[in-house]
From TrEMBL:
A GO MF label: RNA helicase activity
Enzyme Commission code(s) on record: 3.6.4.13
Family statement: Belongs to the DEAD box helicase family. DEAH subfamily.
Domain (Helicase C-terminal) ranges: 224-462
One biological process term in Gene Ontology: maturation of SSU-rRNA from tricistronic rRNA transcript (SSU-rRNA, 5.8S rRNA, LSU-rRNA)
Segments for region (Disordered): 288-319
Keywords: ATP-binding, Helicase, Hydrolase, Nucleotide-binding
Protein name (record): RNA helicase
Residues of the full protein shown: 355 to 1122 of 1196
GO cellular component: nucleolus; ribonucleoprotein complex
UniProt organism field: Emericellopsis cladophorae
Reaction catalysed by this enzyme: ATP + H2O = ADP + phosphate + H(+)
Secretion signal, residue range per the UniProt entry: none
């Protein structure tokens, strides 16, 4: 029996899921697989694990002593939900733990384990029967992240295996699988006989939703950050108390808007942030963390002309005329960002109530769309866009584009306003755009990305014919074929598609197959420690602060800067920029044309001074470097324990700079993992592209990929150096003949901009 505090008890009784406890537990008792659909806020994540716990799952001495595993697509959710369920479980709270990639609180007492779906995937690879668990809950299945989809496919087999094993060994009970979704779109799971032979029962739980009034904008502007600023500013003055939750697409936008709001309304610092231990994160980086290069592609004109101030005011008068329309009392404003690269202690600040008389304004990415409950939110401002991964199955070009969300997402977002009482959602787009451009549901992520990593993992588990894997939605065969080609060229699979010894070795590492391959050839010229550091760094995203952000961010931390005159401020800014350029130049002192070597240098220097202050002074992210450090350690251990010839390998944290011979070797190795991704300088190519005028900047020099991009437009055949690459500082003449790139990226800054952006190479190294 669980003893809960009276207010927790009261709150639980109001949740729709709690009313369904009996029906749900009966379904789970009678079926191995159960699907639960319930609107966000109905109590799925917090309550269902507790039902299982109270029914004896995860309890020593019961019939089902194995743990209850709960997966989340996002790190913040795994950490914060474990905390919440721990609190709700009162005297059993210590039995709830979380595990994310490098960090966890599990111990032998753990009965309920929250984890990212990536963590559970690794565990399935280690034990296909998942003997440690008696029940698995896959949460947020509607998000259809790659890991979720793969997990569901895997678990359909795990369940069968466990049922067979249980017949031989009565001590081992069958495994229960509960799939939870915030939407009703679950036919991919239930009506998919390859996945589940018999359709699992679907338990629908009604939502508990207060009415939310949706306001569409009269027109859609492409500068939605500016538009958000305008709407929030006016809304803050006019609307009755209640928190604002603002959906944007990424960190840059959040920082920009946060500064604007603080400048206009005065920021307010909160008291001590809650302490939760969390230092590392799950790879890969969540998509919304990926920022576009700051490329000057010319002016991106709005499609629509800007409205006049008056027109706007008039529109706002309509929208903000709410309830009995008395003007809201003037309030202070507390602006809090929420995105996954933010240090976790800062992320968790959104759960704290704001000070008396203050309006909390949370600027969030998709993180806040479903999994997290942010108390006090009454007004949602939705830009209607999200950063999404796109992938061209033919050319293999990956892009992270800002695009329209789905109607389902828009409805999730507006629903966030109706959690505690009636609310309002201000959509920064018109109903015409919504009707015309919004898909009903977003495509599963699995259909939008390269799959060599997934294919290798499956093959390493002897699922040779990846097409036969029970994907909830099968991926494009061309993408699968492409991934087989890459794996074959990396020697990870044989001509018949079977995993080779090399491939098995590669699959041990939590790295993309290309990086794992580089690692396995990395011992030449005594390079192994450098190679480890290099692939760890290449696997990380967003190590560098962009200059547009680094400069004001530093300036802001000195209060003296703000109060002094503009002239001093400008001088400081110029100094900062100079320092930024110097720092970046110094990182390239070993080699001025290889991004890979520059990254290695950063990691090497950080190891000697692993402090936040050093990172601030060098315009790099502490959080990311800590993770790279942990990954280096992990890779070293995996090499020692799994790969012949590394039995004596010890982790070496502080390294001397590599010798020139080693730098050359490292560049060669990096190139070897990507030899199918080489581009030749346009004017030196057999059929040079047409150019209207000679390029003036290195980032305008056209290159042609040796595997041509199949695109209609002549101009689209070309790719260009990314401005973040050291090579962008060469002269046009110095631009190398050949460049190896890790991936191609095409960014559209806004869904409304007509102009086609350039495809840019994330360069690794030149080839000499
Ligand atoms: P679902 O998973 O169905 O979206 P949850 O179980 O996450 O729902 O949340 C159910 C309810 O529990 C929320 O609506 C909220 O009232 C409460 N709750 C959840 N997390 C918290 C929290 N961190 N702080 C306060 N209340 C919370
Ligand atoms: Mg939930």
């Amino acid at each position: 029996p669980v003893t809960r505090t009276p207010d927790i008890q009261d709150a639980r009784l109001k949740l729709p899921v709690v009313a369904e406890e009996q029906r749900l537990m009966e379904a789970i008792y009678n079926n191995h697989i159960v699907v639960i659909c319930g609107a966000t806020g109905s109590g799925k994540t917090t309550q269902v694990p507790q039902f299982l716990f109270e029914a004896g799952y995860g309890s020593v001495g019961s019939d089902t002593p194995g743990m209850i595993g709960v997966t989340q697509p996002r790190r913040v959710a795994a950490v914060s939900m474990s905390k919440r369920v721990g609190d709700e479980l009162g005297d059993h709270g210590h039995k709830v733990a979380y595990q994310i990639r490098f960090e966890g609180t599990t111990n032998p007492d753990t009965a309920v384990k929250f984890m990212t779906d990536g963590v559970l995937l690794r565990e399935v690879a280690e034990d296909l029967a998942l003997r440690k668990y008696s029940a698995i809950i896959i949460d947020e299945a509607h998000e259809r992240s790659v890991n979720t989809d793969i997990l569901i496919g895997m678990l359909s087999r795990v369940i069968k295996l466990r049922t067979e094993l249980a017949q031989e060994d009565p001590k081992l009970k069958p495994l229960k699988l509960i799939i939870m979704s915030a939407t009703l779109r679950v036919e991919d799971l239930t009506m998919n006989s390859r996945l589940f032979e018999n359709p699992p029962p679907v338990i629908e739980v009604e939502g508990r939703q207060h009415p939310v009034t949706v306001h569409f904008a009269r027109r859609t502007t492409s500068d939605y950050v500016e538009e958000a600023f305008r709407k929030i500013s006016r809304g803050h003055k006019k609307l009755p108390p209640g928190g604002f939750l603002v959906f944007l697409t990424g960190r840059n936008e959040i920082t920009q808007l946060s500064k604007q709001l603080k400048a206009a309304f005065g920021g307010l610092k909160t008291a001590e942030a809650p302490r939760v231990r969390l230092t590392a994160s799950e790879a890969p980086t969540e998509v919304e963390d990926i920022e576009f290069g700051d490329v000057d592609d010319g002016d991106a004109d709005d499609m629509d002309s800007l409205p006049s101030e008056d027109e706007d005011e008039e529109a706002d008068e309509d929208e903000f005329k709410i309830e009995d329309d008395q003007e809201a009392a003037p309030m202070k404003m507390q602006v809090l960002p929420l995105y996954s690269l933010l240090p976790t202690k800062d992320q968790l600040r959104v759960f704290e109530p704001p000070p008396e008389g203050t309006r909390q304004i949370i600027l969030a990415t998709n993180v806040a769309e479903t999994s997290l409950t942010i108390p006090g939110t009454r007004y949602v401002f939705d830009c209607g866009r999200a950063k999404e991964r796109q992938y061209d199955p033919v050319t293999g070009v990956q892009s992270f584009e800002v695009g329209w969300i789905s109607k389902a997402s828009a409805s999730q977002r507006s629903g966030r306003a109706g959690r505690t009482g009636p609310g309002h959602c201000y959509r920064l787009y018109s109903s015409a755009v919504y009707e015309r451009d919004f898909q009903q549901y977003a495509d599963p992520e699995l259909l939008r990305m390269p799959l060599e990593g997934v294919a290798l993992q499956l093959k390493a588990m002897n699922l040779t014919h990846v097409v036969n894997f029970p994907f909830p939605t099968p991926p494009d065969r061309r993408i699968l074929a492409r991934s087989e080609k890459v794996l074959h060229y990396l020697s990870a699979i044989s001509t018949t598609g079977r995993v080779t010894e090399v491939g098995t070795a590669m699959s041990v590492f939590p790295l993309a197959p290309r990086f794992a391959r580089i690692l396995l050839v990395g011992h030449m010229h005594g390079c192994i420690h450098y190679t480890i550091a290099m692939v760890a760094a290449l696997s990380a995203q967003e190590l560098f602060l962009p200059d547009n952000q680094a400069v004001p961010a530093l300036a802001e931390s000195t209060t003296e800067f703000r109060s002094n005159s503009d002239i001093i401020a400008e001088t400081k800014q110029a100094e900062m920029r100079k320092r930024f350029n110097e720092v970046h130049k110094n990182f390239c002192y070993l080699d001025d044309r290889a991004d890979a070597i520059k990254l290695l240098q950063v990691v090497g220097e950080f190891a000697h001074e692993p402090f936040e202050a050093w990172c601030d002074n060098h315009f790099v992210r502490f959080k990311v470097l800590k993770e790279i450090q942990q990954l280096r350690r992990q890779i070293t251990d995996l090499l020692r324990n799994n790969i012949d010839g590394f039995g004596n390998l010890r982790f070496e944290d502080k390294l001397d700079p590599p010798m020139p011979k080693q730098v050359a070797a490292l560049k060669q190795m990096a190139a070897a993992g990507f030899i199918d991704q080489v581009a030749i300088r346009g004017d030196l190519a057999p059929t040079p592209p047409e150019t209207h005028r000679p390029p003036r900047r290195p980032i305008d020099v056209p290159y042609l990929p040796l595997t041509p991009l199949v695109e209609a437009d002549e101009a689209d055949r070309c790719v260009y150096i990314h401005p973040s690459s050291p090579m962008s500082h060469l002269s046009v003449q110095e631009c190398p003949q050949f460049i190896v790139y890790s991936h191609l990226q095409k960014a559209t800054q806004s869904a409304n901009v007509d102009k086609k952006p350039k495809t840019r190479m994330h360069a690794l190294t030149d080839i000499t």
